[in-house]
Design a protein that fits this description.
Blueprint: E1 10-15, H1 20-26, H2 29-37, E2 47-51, E3 57-63, H3 67-72, H4 76-81, E4 87-92, H5 96-109, E5 124-126, H6 134-152, H7 160-173, E6 177-182, H8 185-188, H9 192-198, E7 206-212, E8 218-223, E9 225-229, H10 238-241, H11 249-263, E10 269-279, E11 291-293, E12 299-301, H12 309-321, E13 327-332, H13 336-342, E14 347-351, H14 354-366, E15 371-374, E16 391-392, H15 401-410, E17 417-421, E18 425-426, E19 436-437, H16 442-453
Parallel strand pairs: 1-3, 1-4, 4-5, 8-10, 8-13, 9-10, 12-16, 13-17, 14-15
Antiparallel strand pairs: 2-3, 6-7, 7-10, 11-12, 14-17, 18-19
């Protein structure tokens, strides 16, 4: 098809499958015949461009599928937009939340991870629709792209120091302050479990601390920053180690969410804490049956060195609690049990407060960012109490692994608290979500936080 030479944006009309027959009757006869000749029916992923008398594109028709297909696959418009030829397009046929979601899908579809090889950009660009919050849209997109880039980068180029550098770049962008405690200074400053997990690596462990905002409720985000996880002395088999570059997905997601919060000037006192380590092996590695004393003073028996994420988060949560935040949220690629329970597409979260849970679930719908509430089930507390120490980092039996991990973390969070046990990875390509690193829960929280914090 001839490339358009138009200077104005090309109308891109979004059409649901059930509406197509009526819409076709109201299109110019030539346009309707052309679309039907090309097999357009409005089903998900359908895309056709209609030429004018000069061979330029006069309009594009994008299939949005049926209500049933929308329930099975979100961001359907992205797969249609990805097929469009080069040009700038303007969405038509949508309004309100549906228009914002389509614009978000289009922008998210344009992501390319091009650090290691040249990637062809998405041909079709989108003119920001009138009447939507462009600052919010751009914050969501750029925050998600930051998260994806960090997770997709292999551990050879994304160790604790490089994660710190990314945090510093974000802090500089938003005029935030950043303080980092690293190496043996962690022991001097009473972060014993962060140090224990990271000390066997040649790449020094550290705690990254970002602060932004001078007024409003105190919000603290804590992200698991295990830049690579061998499993430690309980070493993972090769097949389980293959995706461990993504074990800092919690840190990547809280950095993406922090960007969204700062870019939209949310009136909060934001703090981001990231324990950044590599769980490696040498003669100094912590061992099964070791007992560690945490920053909070609780002792922890190590029954599996591969359950290290909760250890580094525990020290960070205890530290964050000392500032008496109004809300503290941890995000971590913490357990395989969570993926067994809900699969890779849902972000399980834990919270005691029903109002906070309802706000997060409502934010998930508005942000097209699915979540699922899991229980802080008190009867399982005994499973994390080994007897020889206050806590067990890896209860035997293999049951309720995500719940017991969440209960473990709750022991260190002396503040209103929510925990997300995310996957941080898209196992196969889907509309607006290429295979690879993925943020989960950030958009849901961005929408939920104003309600939770009453701002």
């Amino acid at each position: 098809m001839t490339e358009t030479t138009q200077n104005t944006a090309i109308p891109a009309r979004v059409i649901h499958q059930t509406d197509w027959p009526q819409i076709a009757e109201n299109l110019p006869p030539m346009a309707a015949r052309w679309a039907m000749t090309q097999g357009f029916s409005g089903k998900s992923g359908d895309c056709v461009t209609v030429p004018d008398a000069n061979g330029n594109i006069s309009m594009a028709l994008l299939g949005a599928g049926s209500p049933e297909s929308a329930q099975r696959q979100r961001f359907q418009i992205a797969s249609a937009a990805a097929k469009l030829p080069k040009g700038e397009y303007q969405l038509q046929g949508l309004s309100g939340d549906a228009l914002f979601e389509a614009a978000l899908a289009w922008r998210l579809e344009s992501y390319r991870f091009d650090r290691y090889r040249i990637q062809s950009p998405m041909a079709a660009t989108l003119k920001t629709p009138e009447g939507i919050d462009d600052v919010l849209l751009e914050a969501m997109v750029s925050g998600e792209f930051l998260t994806r880039d960090l997770i997709n980068t292999p551990a050879s180029d994304m160790g604790p120091e490089e994660l710190e550098n990314a945090a510093r770049a974000l802090a500089d962008t938003h005029n935030a302050t950043i303080h980092v405690i690293s190496g043996n200074t962690l022991l001097d400053e009473n972060f014993p479990m962060i140090h224990a997990v990271g000390r066997a690596s040649s790449r020094a462990p550290r705690l990254i601390d970002i602060k932004w905002g001078g007024s409003g409720p105190k919000l603290t985000l804590v992200g698991k920053g295990v830049c690579f996880d061998t499993g430690g002395l309980n070493i993972k088999p090769g097949g389980s180690m293959g995706l461990m570059k993504k074990d800092m997905g919690g840190a990547a997601t809280v950095l993406g969410l922090a960007h969204m919060i700062m870019a939209t000037q949310m009136p909060v006192q934001l703090r981001v804490l990231i324990p950044a380590v590599e769980n490696s092996i040498d003669g100094s590695a912590f061992r099964p049956q070791d007992i560690l004393t945490s920053r909070k003073g609780l002792t922890v028996e190590i029954n599996n060195t591969d359950a290290e994420g909760r250890l580094v988060l525990a020290d960070a949560l205890a530290y964050g609690s000392e500032d008496n935040p109004d809300l503290m949220i941890s995000m971590a690629t913490l357990t395989g049990a969570a993926r067994v329970a809900v699969g890779p597409d849902l972000a399980p979260f834990y919270v005691d407060d029903d109002d906070i849970a309802a706000a997060i679930q409502s934010g998930a719908i508005k942000g097209t960012d699915p979540v699922w509430r899991m229980p802080f089930h008190a009867p399982y507390e005994s499973m994390i109490e080994p007897g020889i120490a206050n806590l067990d980092n890896a209860p035997s039996g293999g049951m309720a692994g995500s719940i017991t991990a969440a209960l473990f973390l709750r022991r260190f969070a002396d503040a209103p608290y929510a925990h997300f046990d995310i996957y941080g990875w898209q196992p196969s390509a889907a509309p607006a979500r290429p295979k690879g690193g993925a943020g989960q829960g950030a958009r849901a929280l961005l929408h939920a936080l104003p309600n939770i914090l009453s701002i």
